[in-house]
Every structure is written in structure tokens, then in C-alpha cells.
Amino acid sequence: NKVEIAVVGSCNMDLITYTSRLPHIGETMHGHKFVKGYGGKGANQCVAAAKLGAYTAMIGKVGEDNDGDSFIKNFNTFGVNTDHVLRTKSSATGVASISVIDGGGNAIIIAAGANLDLSLQDVNNASNIISKANVLLCQLEVHPLTTLHALKLAKLHNVKTILNPAPAPDNGLDIEFYTNSDIICPNEAEATSLTDVCVNDVESAKKAALILVEKGCEVGIITLGSQGCVYAVRSVSKAVHIKPDTVKTIDTTGAGDAFAGALAFFVVRFPNISLHEKISRACYIASKSVCYEGTQKSYPYAADVPINLFGFDNMFDN
Ligand code: RIB
Ligand code: NA
């Protein structure tokens, strides 16, 4: 099958500890439980789109270790094209140490390992897939120059680009990331470091979304957890808030990835529904993911969500 969504990004083994709170420096404490899972923002977004039914390909790098082996097997269970999930001897498969506190909030430390070995040449070697895809989806867990190279390659071939700028660098992003991305979708914290607006509510998010589009992308979306998201379109200097229904939050880890992967899916499969409708549907998918533990395994399959999410009529736009 033709690849609809190409993801150039990260693969991390997630080591998730559920705990009542984070420990203080110097403290040892008991958590509730521990689980291992397949994660990494790139892999998560790829799987989120695949579970909804998109034909996806992952372009990334893992170690020549057991984690790398099982990572590729995991992709294959979702039908993800892994021709360009490369192996390296020089680094271990990426690892994310994740703490999820009661109420669902999380803190994550990544040891990127093999992810940082993904090179510009590796991206070039996947140009056959990237240039023919409908959407390229990127994050910032591989080397920023690799990400930028992929975005430029896609734009050269008129492929739509979506950048989830996570994690956001402290000193902002080069303007070329904006001009080579059609859609940029940070969360509150990332939007704060990208725009210098302290994003902590809908109003500040609207301000920041407008700044994102001024920097050169077509659409700026800021995800706001239980508040949904805010988006702005460059040609219209107005920001819009989308608020999903309230759900019982169990684990917010990877909700932003569910959003980005689902957004890519709706962009590819439903080019003719409005932008508002596409974003609202992606928000809905993300809100489902927080009701379950983990990242990829918490993302809904197409069969798990209402059928009209895959219709051409508006569900949210009126
Ligand atoms: O966005 C969630 C992801 O961030 C986790 O899966 C972890 O691997 C980190 O990359
Ligand atoms: Na989840």
C-alpha cells in the first residue's frame, strides 16, 4: 500500500512508574506499580494514525539490542512500514523514564540514544517514501537538523508537513522550522518556550497561537490538556478554542501524540472537511487516550470510536 503518513522521529522504550507524587531530591519512595511500553513521540504518533486506519511508515533508529528487535515487531503488529527503522551498533535504543502521578499528570526524562544517530543521509535514503506521502509528521526527539532536513525534503515535493515541537528547545526554534511546517502543534509548556507568552489558559494560548502563525506556519495549534486546544490560521488573524467533553483522566502520557497522529489521519483521509472539524476530531481521539494507562496501547482503533468520526458530515463544526 502507498504510504499516506511518513513519520521521521523517535522510538523510546517507556519505563513507566505510577506513583502518588514525584520524589524530592535525595528521597527514595515506593510507587504503585511499573509497566514497560513502546513509546517515543515519533513512534506513538505513527501508531496513533495506524490504529485509526492510515497507511504509515516510520523513519527512525533503534539499537542492535533486544529493545530494538521488539520495537520493530511492535510496529509490524500495527501494519507500520518499518523499511526505514534502522539499527545502530553505537547506541542503545532510546529510553524514556516516565513518572505518572495520581490524577494522570506525568514527568518524563528521555535518554535519546539511537534516536540521535538518525542522520540527514538516513532521511535522504527514505526520500522515496517521504516524497510520495500525503503528510510528513515530525517531532523534536531526533537531531533538530535531521528533522529540519525531513521537513524541507517534504516541502520540496509538496507534501503537507506537521511538526509537533516536542520537547521544545529552551532557546526557541529556527524560523525555518516554521516556514517548512504547514501545521505546528505544541502543548502549553512548549508554546510558552516558543513564543515567550506564558501559556496557562485559553486567552494566553490564543495569543501564542497567533504568534506561531506570524512566524511562518499556516496553522498553529496549542493543545491544552483537559481544556482541549486553541488554533489560529495565518490568513485569518483570529484564534479559536475547541473544548472536548470532560473525561475521567487516568494517564495523560502521549495524549499530545494521539492528537498529532489523529490530526495527520484526518488531514489525509478527510481533506474536504473543515480544519475546525479535523482538529475537533483529533481532540476527541486524544481525550479517549487519557482514559487508559500507557501511550500506544491507550490509543483507540477505528472500531473503538463512533462511526460518524469517519464520515464526511460535520460532528463538531456548526
Ligand atoms: O509523548 C509521550 C512520549 O514522550 C513517551 O512515549 C516517551 O517515550 C517520550 O518520548
Ligand atoms: Na493514555
Strand content: 15-25%
Major beta-sheet overview: 9 strands, mixed
Regions with little confidence, pLDDT below 50 for 5+ residues: none
Q: Give the beta-strand count.
A: 13
Structural class call reads alpha/beta
Strand order of the largest sheet: 5-4-1-8-9-10-11-12-13
Shape: globular
Small-molecule binders = alpha-D-ribofuranose, sodium ion
Order of helices and strands: EEEHEHEEEHHEHEHEHHEEEHH
* Average residue-wise pLDDT: 96
The termini sit apart by: 35 Å
Portion in helices: 25-40%
Taking Cα atoms only, what radius of gyration do you get, to the nearest Å? 18 Å
What key attributes describe this structure?
binds sodium ion, four-stranded mixed beta sheet, 318 residues, alpha/beta, 10 helices, binds alpha-D-ribofuranose, globular
